[in-house]
Amino acid sequence: MAGTWVFVDQRDGNIRKVTYEMLAEAKKFGGEVAAVVFGKGVEGLAGEFAKYGADKVYVADDDIFAAYNTGAYVAQMVAMIKEYSPNAVLFGHTMNGRDMASRLAQKLDAGMATDAIAAEISDGKAVFTRAIYAGKALAKVEVTGSPIVATIRAGVWEVVESAGAGEVVKVAVAATAADVYQVAKDFVPTVSARPELTEAAVVVSGGRGCKGPEGIKVVEELADLLGAALGGSRASIDSGWLGHELQVGQTGKVVCPGLYIACGISGAIQHLAGMSSSKFIAAVNTDTEAPIFNVADFGVVGDLFKVVPLLCTELKK
Ligand SMILES: Cc1cc2nc3c(=O)[nH]c(=O)nc-3n(C[C@H](O)[C@H](O)[C@H](O)COP(=O)(O)OP(=O)(O)OC[C@H]3O[C@@H](n4cnc5c(N)ncnc54)[C@H](O)[C@@H]3O)c2cc1C
């Protein structure tokens, strides 16, 4: 068995933090740790991964990998796994990671765990911990078969610098034009000076209790004072107060920040599914019975239009 592979989640050379989190943790599993990077002009990134524990960096550099492409990426990964036989292949639980890991597991007839928040891998055995019932319970899932495929929730592991040998292995390109069955024609990033929701250390979210765009501005001010990402419940997204990319929850994004502040959010099970693994949860809600208080470490029963501006005033001092 050839150790643990970590798929590098990157776009235009911007590497998602979860990649480094996985490299650091994979080091603890014992055996060789390898980063696997696909792209065009990505060879220069290889040195980065050695700092976080990569003993090897497999690089597939070709036009066909210039932008994420399901068919080409999966075909390449299948070919590489057949050649090098890694014990486990880890992906971030990101849009691309989820897309790729599930198809890869299906192609290889491999066992898979998704959205894991902890993992123990040794001697070809792997046990992953997953939050179930919106974080009300934890399931331990043993993945059998080979290779072990898993997606890991961003933010649950620390980024730790730890030197690896970082030997660069340029792999043959196995994906062909026939593997490309969909092409991304355009990529339009949402422009925001705030941190990316799934990678932020602090997330401040607004719900229906904000009562409209003006209420969202109150929450936004708090986010900006804390250097936080802004998020929202589905109620505030569906009302058009916030963009869809900011929805937290079962049908939105899963976040795991050090601090999550829920303002005017009731704490429906679908919202909890996206934030209940946050390390510290604070909530402001007028209703003492709001379910958000069941998961909150710190709760303020009060009107967010009074509490949040007070907090902002204190933070400005
Ligand atoms: C299949 C499915 C998927 C879903 N996916 C998601 C998802 O991904 N994410 C998600 O969030 N939801 C999701 N939902 C919707 C979810 O069930 C809830 O409807 C939604 O989360 C409610 O949003 P909310 O808490 O903002 O609104 P509400 O439940 O209406 O809560 C508003 C809260 O604000 C409080 N409040 C009111 N005024 C104030 C004030 N002045 N100050 C402080 N507090 C105040 C109220 O006491 C209340 O608790 C999904 C639902 C379904 C069926």
UniProtKB/TrEMBL annotation:
<comment type="similarity">
    <text>Belongs to the ETF alpha-subunit/FixB family.</text>
</comment>
<dbReference type="InterPro" id="IPR014730">
    <property type="entry name" value="ETF_a/b_N"/>
</dbReference>
<dbReference type="Pfam" id="PF00766">
    <property type="entry name" value="ETF_alpha"/>
</dbReference>
<dbReference type="GO" id="GO:0033539">
    <property type="term" value="P:fatty acid beta-oxidation using acyl-CoA dehydrogenase"/>
</dbReference>
<feature type="binding site">
    <location>
        <begin position="247"/>
        <end position="251"/>
    </location>
    <ligand>
        <name>FAD</name>
    </ligand>
</feature>
<keyword id="KW-0249">Electron transport</keyword>
<feature type="binding site">
    <location>
        <position position="285"/>
    </location>
    <ligand>
        <name>FAD</name>
    </ligand>
</feature>
<keyword id="KW-0285">Flavoprotein</keyword>
<dbReference type="InterPro" id="IPR014729">
    <property type="entry name" value="Rossmann-like_a/b/a_fold"/>
</dbReference>
<feature type="domain" description="Electron transfer flavoprotein alpha/beta-subunit N-terminal">
    <location>
        <begin position="4"/>
        <end position="191"/>
    </location>
</feature>
<keyword id="KW-0274">FAD</keyword>
<dbReference type="InterPro" id="IPR029035">
    <property type="entry name" value="DHS-like_NAD/FAD-binding_dom"/>
</dbReference>
<feature type="binding site">
    <location>
        <position position="208"/>
    </location>
    <ligand>
        <name>FAD</name>
    </ligand>
</feature>
<feature type="binding site">
    <location>
        <begin position="233"/>
        <end position="234"/>
    </location>
    <ligand>
        <name>FAD</name>
    </ligand>
</feature>
<dbReference type="InterPro" id="IPR018206">
    <property type="entry name" value="ETF_asu_C_CS"/>
</dbReference>
<dbReference type="GO" id="GO:0009055">
    <property type="term" value="F:electron transfer activity"/>
</dbReference>
<dbReference type="GO" id="GO:0050660">
    <property type="term" value="F:flavin adenine dinucleotide binding"/>
</dbReference>
<keyword id="KW-0813">Transport</keyword>
<feature type="binding site">
    <location>
        <begin position="264"/>
        <end position="271"/>
    </location>
    <ligand>
        <name>FAD</name>
    </ligand>
</feature>
<dbReference type="InterPro" id="IPR014731">
    <property type="entry name" value="ETF_asu_C"/>
</dbReference>
<protein>
    <submittedName>
        <fullName>Electron transfer flavoprotein, alpha subunit</fullName>
    </submittedName>
</protein>
<dbReference type="InterPro" id="IPR033947">
    <property type="entry name" value="ETF_alpha_N"/>
</dbReference>
<dbReference type="InterPro" id="IPR001308">
    <property type="entry name" value="ETF_a/FixB"/>
</dbReference>
<dbReference type="Pfam" id="PF01012">
    <property type="entry name" value="ETF"/>
</dbReference>
